[in-house]
Structure formats: structure tokens, C-alpha cells
Design brief:
The protein is α+β, with helices and mostly antiparallel strands and 740 residues long. It contains 18 helices and 27 strands. The N and C termini lie far apart (69 Å).
């Protein structure tokens, strides 16, 4: 391995040199000499030298032997990540892009790629950090805008992190067999070579085409089916005031989060948000009351969001129940005396509220905002870049890399697996290579250095180094192929992805069994990935009426457990915290500036003669942190193993329905048991919700008491159900409800 620590910590600072203006290098506020960055590259070619060994002669021979041609828009061009490692253009030797296959390899693998593909021409790309001038940094900060949608790294989304340096790209033509490098562009090179190089550089590439680094929550807002023929009652002279100060909920009198029903002019407060903010639901209740009277008035517009460009419109109709568009909004508002062309925005849209909640809560939780954290680096401490909603991939790869029985054998086999890629295939499409490559990157020393990606301050102080990160784009693309969800930009469940990854690896291990064996797997302690986690559970079903029992087994990849909140070790503290929070919400809804202390004493703010300003907030230091339940992991597992009563059509009783007792135990234990804690559930309105709970895991967990024993002496086996009898747990059989 080459010295990444030294190479990545070095910054280019050559303010007096010239940066040629061409499309081979990115723009920068600094003036840098390309030749000084790659001093060994040739900057001039002698076109009068016709000797066989001259660089130009070698280029011409390579052109004829390779049938050189430019990549089309349909060709896959891999130019941001090495196919065999996680090298990038920022590595000291950059990447070498094969001008025959358009696949990039790092410095360690170019010779092997040359031998394998008989390619003699490579486009070598290197990227260098150049410190920004102080004026550039200030300008960037001044132009920074607030995000307009839930996204990271997009023009309208959250900032993915402001780099304190510009990037300069330096490109050379690498020629085999002499390995001479020619600085690009070079007018003496054949026009075809320059055209191919230019086409590769301008090509979007696989990474850009499929790049999810800018992740976004894109919800298509559709036209409401009720907008075209929306009923509107006669205003009878009751028009909506254009003065926002006169708007208030007609049920509670609150003045925030107000929605105007477009059919009858009722102004009501919106629903409460998941974090306790928002309204009291008066607008929804009004819709339901009108619906009960036979009046279908589903559309409401959020007051304060109306502008000549539109507004937030919500449909309460059960078949829509979402934000919608109203093509006739101008006319519907005019009916109530509102001229859409004269309206200005005075309240936040639903998208902005979502952004606020994400900015203040979810992203802070992820990034531990406000904490003084120490950056760490080294083998086993390699980070993964966010490729756009790719947290589920990162968490699973880090989990697997932390297990020695997964990482160590794959690291040892990596070189052999690379060398044995079938000639008819590519390493970018080989699961065995890409998985071993990921384990090697996360647990090895090659990327264990630090990246001083903050430009040296003007005062000469040493910048704070940050750990290197890898970006597993090829792995993500390969594992996502053929899967409707994992090939998309949407957020996914990590547990589902683990199952998908294991299935894909099982198939790859089966088809590549000879390659795995040839790599010395048997002597390295390698096991199929699935075998490390799979175990069997035994289910016991006891019929108390016939005194018969049935045992069945099934394989599992993980132990899924629910969280029994009634087993929380701090139930009294949770109850007291929830009670105080409820009192605070009630007082805030009433518009009072009041704080409820932990002893139950309510203290009025004497200065609160009038309702608080919309942006006013209670002093967060006065409000105690919410107390969440703490449930021991063993209690969750006990809940999984507890006996439950199920309705069952017993074959021992001729199909009679009985209340059978069902219990589950471990028939086998895996080398590594994955425990999935089910935090998500459906609330009373059948909306997905997440338990806010802490599950305490002990350092050691003994599950021997839950080992299965099979049928015991004296137990009577339950007879098999006659074919076609339908004997089965009654709870699994469908019975239509006659009242629906």
C-alpha cells in the first residue's frame, strides 16, 4: 500500500503558476500549473520523431490494434471508482480509464488490466485539492441559501458540507508498453485519440447517471379529482378578510396553522404534527361533521401560503388524504373574496415545515449536532459516504465488516477472486469481487489514513484532519440491479437489504464455488455468508382439549422481537414526563405563556398579556427533556418466547376450533445472531409510527434456557390434518365481514 496519509494530507498551493484554460481541468480560483502536479508527464511531443519507440508511434500502433472509438451515450463508463478497489481520482496515482472497456482501475491493477484486455491506451485522471482564497469562502457563505426541499447535496436541498478547497483535475494519456504519460490536451496527438478522451471526460458515466448522492424526498402532488366539480356554498356576504391578523380558527380561536375549507368558508386549525407542534385538528373534524350531514367538502387551502403561484391545498377525502393541486384554485378563492394575484406568503408551507422538523430533529440526531466529537481513523474505522438515501447500505456493510469471520476470509481471498473473474464478465458485475473489495476497504490499511480536506487557514494553522471515506457506488449499483426498491433512490429498510444481500451472495457463492475453493477458502475459515447467521426455531403447538402436541421447525436469518413497553424499568418517570408534556401542550394551545414545573406547579409569565409572536418559543432550558422508556433486551426476547393462545382447527378434534397454546424456542444457534428490534407499528388511525424507546443490551446474554427440546416422553403427537380438511390456525383463515 502506498502512503495515503502523506499523499492525502498534502495540499497544492502554487498561486503564481498558470492553469491552462481547457476542458481537461476544472475551474478554480487558484492559478496552478498542471505540469507541476504531474512532473513526470510529457508536455510536448516531437511529431518529427518517427522511431518505433517514440511516444507518438506507440500511440498510433495502439490506435490500430484497439479499434479505438468514442463511447456512446448507451455505453457504461466507470470513471469515478476503481473496479477492483475503492481508489478514486483523488488517490496519488488517480485512476486509469481503459479506452477499450471504459472501466477505471487504480494504480495497483493497471498492469493486470492491460494484460487481460490487451488495451494499450488509458486516460489517467487525477484530482487535487487547491485551497480556496478567503474571499472565495466568504462569497460562498454569502450566497448560501436555505433549503427548499428535503434533500442533501442538491441545489434546493440541505448542504452536504462546504469544502474549503477547490478541485483541479489533471488528465494524462497513459501509453503501454512504455507507460509514458502525456499531459492532456496535446495538439500533436491524433485527432481520434483527442476525440475519444474528450468523449470519455464529457460522458455522464455510470456514477453520475445512477448517483444518489443528492437524496430527496420527491412526492408527486397530483390534481384532486374533486377540484373540477367542487361544491361551494353561497357566501351570503361573508367573505374572508385579506388581513392575516384577522384569521383565526372558528372552533378554538387559535391563529396558527389555519386552513380554509373551499366549499363552505370554515377556517379551522390543522392537525398536530408528530412532534407535538401544529394545530388541534379542527379543520379535519369540520370535514367529518359535514360528511356526516351528507356534504362532501374535501378541499382546504392553507391560509398564509397563498401566492399568485398557488398554495398548499389538502384533500381530506379518504381516497386522496394528501396534498393536492387545484386547477381552479383562483376561482375557488375568488368565491370567498380572496384575490390570488394580490396575496403574499405569510406562513410556512407544508414542505417548509417538514424541512424545519428535519433540520431541528432528525439530521441533528444523525450528525450529533452541537457535540464536540473527536474524528477517528484507522483500519476498521473507515467511513462510508452518503450516496443518497444509502444509510441502509452503509449500516449493513459496517455491520458485516465488524465481524472477523466475514471480513478476514474475504480480505485474504480478494486477490485470487480479482484474478479469476471470467473473461466473459467484468469485475464491476462480480458480486464476489465487489463484496471482498468492500471488506478489504473497511477493514484493511489502504484507506486507513486521514484526509486533510480543510484548506490551511491564512494564519498558517494546521487544518484539522478528517478520516478518509469510501463511496461504494459499484457495490450499490450491482446489488440493486433487478430489484425495484434497492435500485431506486428511496429510503429502504436495512434488515430487508441484509436479506437481499445474503440471497445475492448465496447465488454468487454457488456459481463461483470453484473460484472460492481455488482461493484457499477452506484454509481461511471461510463460510457461506448465510451460514454465519441462519438458525432454526422450533414452534410448539399444544391442543389442551385433545392433549396432543405438534412441533415444527423453520429457518430464520434474524430474531425479530417486539418491545414490551409494560416491562420498562422507568415506567413511573415516563408517566410523569408524559403528564407534564400534556399539560404544557394544553396551555400552549390556549395561547398562555406558562411553564409547568416537575412538581406540577404552573407559573404564568407576567409579560404574556398577549399571545406570543408566531416565532416565539418557550425557553428550552426550562423544559425538561422527554423521558423515554428503557426496556431490557432480555425482556424483549422473553416476550418473543412467551406462550400465546391462538385459535386453531385441531385435526385431533376433527377440525374443531380450539384455543391452542403456541410457544417458540431455538432449535439451533448461529455463530452470530442478529436481533431486530421492531420499533415501527400502526397507530389507531392505521398510520405508521415509531416507538421512542431505549433497549438496553447487556454485555452477555445467555439464551440456553430457550433451547428447544423436541417432543418429550409422554407427549402425544397431533395427527396430520386430512388433505383438504382446512385444519389450520383459525387466525390464519380469511373470514369475510358481512357488515362491510
Amino acid at each position: 500500500p502506498f502512503p495515503f496519509r502523506t499523499a492525502f494530507a498534502a495540499f497544492i498551493s502554487l498561486p503564481d503558476l498558470l492553469l491552462p484554460g481547457n476542458n481537461m481541468a476544472s475551474s478554480s480560483s487558484e492559478v496552478v500549473s498542471l505540469s507541476s502536479l504531474v512532473p513526470h508527464a510529457l508536455t510536448a511531443l516531437d511529431d518529427s520523431d518517427s522511431s518505433a519507440d517514440s511516444p507518438l508511434s506507440q500511440v498510433r500502433r495502439a490506435m490500430s490494434s484497439m479499434s479505438l472509438k468514442s463511447p456512446s451515450a448507451y455505453d457504461a463508463v466507470h470513471k469515478t471508482e476503481c473496479a477492483l478497489s475503492h481508489d478514486t481520482p483523488f488517490c496519488p496515482s488517480g485512476l486509469a480509464i481503459n479506452l477499450k472497456t471504459f472501466t477505471a482501475t487504480g494504480d495497483l491493477f493497471v498492469d493486470a488490466d492491460h494484460e487481460r484486455t490487451n488495451c494499450d491506451l488509458y486516460l489517467r485522471t487525477r484530482s487535487f485539492y487547491v485551497p480556496k482564497k478567503k474571499s472565495d469562502e466568504n462569497k460562498d457563505k454569502g450566497e448560501q441559501q436555505q433549503p427548499k426541499k428535503v434533500a442533501i447535496g442538491t441545489p434546493d436541498g440541505f448542504d452536504a458540507g462546504d469544502d474549503a478547497a477547490n478541485v483541479v483535475d489533471v488528465n494524462t494519456l497513459l501509453v503501454y508498453p512504455s507507460k509514458v504519460e502525456i499531459l492532456l490536451p496535446n495538439a500533436n496527438l491524433p485527432e481520434l485519440v483527442l476525440n475519444v478522451v474528450d468523449a470519455v471526460l464529457k460522458h455522464d458515466g455510470v456514477a453520475k447517471r445512477e448517483d444518489l448522492a443528492a437524496w430527496a424526498e420527491e412526492n408527486e402532488v397530483k390534481e384532486s379529482r374533486y377540484a373540477a366539480n367542487l361544491p361551494q356554498e353561497d357566501p351570503n356576504g361573508r367573505l374572508i378578510s385579506p388581513d392575516p391578523k384577522k384569521w383565526k380558527c372558528m372552533e378554538s380561536g387559535t391563529t396558527e396553522n389555519l386552513w380554509l375549507n373551499l366549499s363552505d368558508g370554515f377556517i379551522g386549525s390543522g392537525r398536530r404534527n408528530w412532534d407535538g407542534s401544529g394545530g388541534n385538528g379542527a379543520a379535519l373534524r369540520h370535514y367529518e361533521e359535514m360528511k356526516a350531514q351528507g356534504k362532501d367538502y374535501p378541499l382546504a387551502v392553507k391560509l398564509g401560503t397563498i401566492t399568485p403561484n398557488g398554495a398548499d391545498v389538502f384533500s381530506y377525502a379518504p381516497d386522496e388524504n394528501d396534498l393536492v393541486t387545484d386547477a381552479n384554485l383562483k376561482d375557488h378563492l375568488s368565491h370567498w373574496g380572496i384575490d390570488i394575484m394580490k396575496q403574499t406568503k405569510t406562513d410556512k408551507t407544508m414542505a417548509e415545515l417538514t424541512l424545519d422538523l428535519n433540520q431541528s430533529f432528525e439530521f441533528d440526531k444523525v450528525t450529533e449536532a452541537g457535540k464536540d466529537l473527536q474524528a477517528v481513523s484507522g483500519a476498521g474505522r473507515i467511513g462510508l459516504s452518503n450516496l443518497g438515501n444509502s444509510c441502509y447500505i452503509a449500516s449493513i456493510l459496517q455491520l458485516l465488516a465488524s465481524i472477523d469471520d466475514v471480513a478476514a476470509p474475504n480480505m485474504a481471498m480478494a486477490a485470487s477472486l480479482r484474478a479469476s473473474v471470467p473473461a466473459s464478465s467484468e469485475a464491476t458485475a462480480d458480486e464476489l469481487v465487489q463484496f471482498a473489495k468492500a471488506m478489504e476497504a473497511l477493514r484493511g490499511n489502504r484507506y486507513a489514513g486521514v484526509n486533510a480536506n480543510a484548506a490551511p487557514p491564512e494564519d498558517g494553522a494546521t487544518p484539522t484532519p478528517t478520516p478518509l471515506r469510501i463511496a461504494p457506488r459499484l457495490f450499490r449499483t450491482l446489488l440493486g440491479q433487478g430489484h425495484s426498491e434497492f435500485s431506486s433512490a428511496r429510503q429502504q429498510d436495512a434488515l430487508e437489504y441484509l436479506g437481499h444481500l445474503i440471497d445475492r451472495m448465496e447465488s454468487a457463492e454457488r456459481s463461483g464455488a470453484s473460484r472460492i475453493e481455488a482461493s484457499g477458502a477452506s484454509g481461511l475459515g471461510w463460510r457461506p455468508l448465510k451460514q454465519l447467521f441462519e438458525f432454526e426455531v422450533e414452534e410448539r403447538l399444544f391442543d389442551p382439549e385433545s392433549q396432543t402436541v405438534r412441533y415444527t421447525r423453520r429457518p430464520e436469518l434474524y430474531l425479530g422481537v417486539n418491545v414490551p413497553l409494560d416491562r420498562a424499568v422507568n415506567s413511573s418517570e415516563v408517566a410523569a414526563s408524559d403528564s407534564e408534556a400534556a399539560k404544557r401542550r394544553k396551555l400552549q394551545e390556549a395561547g398562555a405563556c406558562t411553564y409547568v414545573s416537575s412538581d406540577g406547579t404552573a407559573t404564568d409569565n407576567a409579560a404574556a398579556a398577549a399571545p406570543p409572536a408566531p416565532d416565539a418559543a418557550m425557553d428550552t432550558e426550562m423544559v425538561p427533556a422527554k423521558v423515554v422508556p428503557r426496556v431490557p433486551l432480555l425482556s424483549c426476547i422473553d416476550s418473543f418466547a412467551a406462550t400465546e393462545v391462538v385459535e386453531f382447527n385441531s385435526p385431533a378434534m376433527d377440525g374443531k376450533q380450539v384455543n391452542a397454546q403456541k410457544s417458540t424456542r431455538f432449535a439451533t444457534f448461529p455463530p452470530y445472531m442478529l436481533v431486530a428490534i421492531h420499533r415501527y407499528y400502526f397507530d389507531k388511525n392505521w398510520r405508521p409510527a415509531k416507538l421512542d424507546v431505549e433497549v438496553e443490551a447487556p454485555a452477555e446474554l445467555n439464551l440456553e434456557s430457550l433451547r428447544a427440546h423436541g417432543i418429550r416422553d409422554g407427549e402425544v403427537p397431533m395427527p396430520d390434518a386430512p388433505e383438504g380438511s382446512g385444519a389450520a390456525p383459525a387466525s390464519t383463515r380469511f373470514s369475510p365481514d358481512a357488515d362491510i
